[in-house]
Design brief:
38% of the residues lie in helices and 12% in strands. It has 441 residues and is of the alpha/beta class. Helix 8 crosses helix 16 and helix 9 packs across helix 16.
Length: 441
């Protein structure tokens, strides 16, 4: 297991700064991604083949994808929205030169399923059924969402706090309402006595958690998406209050759109003592973020609630690639190197170079980001191999890291925890209501 490398602070804050120099030309590949969401080593390695640029939210993609991006990595609901606008290239899987375990070439989305974990296949197949219902013109009987999207990373929204165990009862909580009730009763989380709680500043993510809490009381299987595709501001406000009501007027939170800043603060012994964040960020923080001593089982604790917010981010290609065959091949090459190379190589995924970087792009990327892997061979290496080496970590540390890494959702009904597209009006109403509620806490 290789700890993420220490990076100069300028790269942590804005890794695109040193890349966005010089004039763009029409043959240059534009690869767009979320902030702090790709290995700096890979960016450096391929910066002569593509320009890597960043956005803070899925909604930014709406205004920039059509004209500006060749490749983007949105969350699934945004990818489906782009597909509904006829903006996505249908993926030619044969151009990646991948094979299955029998050595047979993978040429389409259905054949690509063998590369991915059961959780990812369940999500993608469920989203395929949604797409067939909403936009049947893009799907014949043999097509799947894999024909338009390549899974990148799976994320689970959890809560973590450091220091001595605050409340033993938290370990026994099975839903978010009970967990947050117990948490806010304890003086350990009193904002007048401790540092603020870190939380991602994103209206959709906070809404998802709130809606889970709202539906925990009304159904055996809570879900995250609005009941009404065109919800009003007042309806969204009411949904948000399922979460925000616990924190009114307490000035509890440190908000930031960049998860890197959240995890840096959480990992810093003098930073935020707790955070709501996605599991990859929590895992990195628990291991010290490459800057501090790692935390062990005795002083780093997480929620382990089965019904939580999940986000699957995917790689999509711009349909304009059809018009430039040479450019198209270059785009497929860079996507293969960064997002797929090694996914069909079995146990060789652990191979390293002389400088201890991983040979395969997807493993190097995973080692930097640490979100739940979408590929079977990486998932198996993390959970059953020696990625968390016993030579480097105590058994209790390994158990903690694997617990953070592994999504614990009900795999048979996982799609109810994945975001679906909503209308532009609903997005606006959601954001408006979020800002109103945010002001109260």
């Amino acid at each position: 297991m290789q700890i993420k490398k220490f990076l100069p602070i300028i790269l942590i804050i804005s890794p695109s700064c040193y890349l966005n120099t010089g004039c763009m030309n029409e043959n240059e590949i534009i690869f767009a991604n979320f902030e702090s969401y790709m290995s700096i080593n890979l960016i450096r390695q391929y910066q002569n083949e593509a320009q890597f640029i960043y956005y803070g939210t899925n909604e930014e993609i709406q205004t920039k994808f059509k004209q500006n991006y060749d490749v983007a990595i949105p969350t699934t609901y945004e990818a489906i929205d782009l597909l509904s606008q006829n903006l996505l290239e249908k993926i030619d899987w044969s151009l990646f030169n991948l094979t299955n375990e029998n050595g047979e070439p993978i040429t389409n989305g259905h054949e690509a399923e063998v590369l991915f974990t059961n959780e990812i296949n369940n999500i993608m197949n469920s989203m395929t059924e949604y797409c067939k219902e909403k936009m049947p013109e893009y799907f014949n009987n043999n097509e799947t969402l894999y024909d338009y999207c390549i899974p990148y990373f799976l994320q689970s929204f959890i809560f973590a706090y450091k220091g001595c165990r605050a409340i033993d009862e938290l370990d026994n909580c099975t839903n978010w309402n009970d967990y947050i009730t117990q948490m806010t009763k304890n003086k350990y989380f009193d904002p007048t006595k401790t540092s603020h709680i870190g939380i991602v500043d994103d209206s959709r993510t906070i809404y998802d958690l709130a809606h889970i809490m709202l539906t925990e009381n009304n159904t055996n299987k809570p879900y995250i998406n609005p009941d009404n595709e065109n919800q009003s501001i007042s309806e969204y406000r009411k949904d948000y209050q399922a979460f925000t009501k616990y924190f009114y007027g307490k000035n509890n939170f440190y908000f930031n759109t960049d998860s890197q800043e959240i995890l840096n603060s959480l990992s810093n012994p003098s930073g935020n003592h707790s955070s709501f964040a996605y599991n990859g960020d929590i895992l990195y923080a628990a291991m010290g973020a490459g800057l501090y001593d790692s935390w062990n089982e005795n002083n780093f604790h997480i929620s382990n609630i089965k019904d939580s917010v999940l986000a699957l981010d995917v790689v999509v290609l711009n349909k304009k690639l059809d018009k430039k065959l040479t450019h198209k091949q270059k785009v497929y090459n860079i996507v293969n190197k960064i997002c797929l190379n090694g996914c069909d190589k079995g146990e060789r995924i652990s191979d390293t170079k002389g400088n201890d970087d991983y040979v395969y792009g997807i493993m190097e990327n995973f080692d930097y980001i640490n979100y739940t892997a979408v590929f079977k061979n990486i998932d198996d290496y993390v959970l059953n191999g020696d990625y968390f080496s016993e030579e480097e970590y105590a058994p209790e540390e390994i158990n903690l890291y694997k617990k953070i890494y592994k999504v614990v959702a009900d795999n048979d009904d996982i799609s109810r925890l994945i975001e679906l597209p909503i209308s532009n009006l609903a997005k606006s109403n959601m954001h408006w209501a979020y800002n109103e509620e945010k002001e109260k806490i």
